[in-house]
């Protein structure tokens, strides 16, 4: 339902995203029935760009849409990262075949990771192509149609503290993300300032307590 197909259109959007945020650290995960980490977080965006562009259906392994597994792998890739400036961009048709995605989004939220979603596909949907040509049929022999679950993807993004983007918005998507990233950077700066303040506060408090004790001690002796 999207020309030339959903995967190709997704790859194009990802490459456009990389081009517009050249100073960020990024990683790339593909998923179908399972999830695969192509690149961990890196500033070598040329490699991420190449990995995204080279992705084919044959590389996805087991067919399906295991969103929870992909989100769990994304969370692990942030395991040693600190702060609140971590973001996951989920590009999917939203047809979750495995379940557990809502619970995994809650885990992302607790880890300080913000989730944005991007539906791929039209409201009318499209027929699922079968291997070797033609249209895929279900057990009853009826052709299988797929359409993005936009309502579910929007709810998933809200649960992750982010928003659902629209592929048709083009440049508007990237402007929105730039504003969101700037806001997260400000939160991170405030968090770091507060952390630094907490780190040294106890030393000054200790000195003040010692002075107070010394003053009380000498006052009693002189009395």
Span from first to last CA?
A: 91 Å
User: What structural class should be given to the helix and strand makeup?
Assistant: alpha+beta
**Uncertain spans:** none
How many beta strands in the DSSP annotation?
6
Helix content: 40-55%
Q: What Rg do the Cα atoms give? A: 24 Å
Strand order across the largest sheet: 1-2
In sequence order, what are the helices and strands, one letter per element? Answer: HEEHHEHEEEHH
Mind summarizing the main beta sheet?
Answer: 2 strands, antiparallel
User: How large a portion of the residues is in β-strands, by DSSP E?
Assistant: 5-15%
What spatial form do the alpha-carbon principal axes imply?
Answer: elongated
Global mean pLDDT = 81
The helix tally amounts to 6
Descriptors:
223 residues, alpha+beta, two-stranded antiparallel ribbon, two-stranded parallel ribbon, 6 helices, 6 strands, elongated
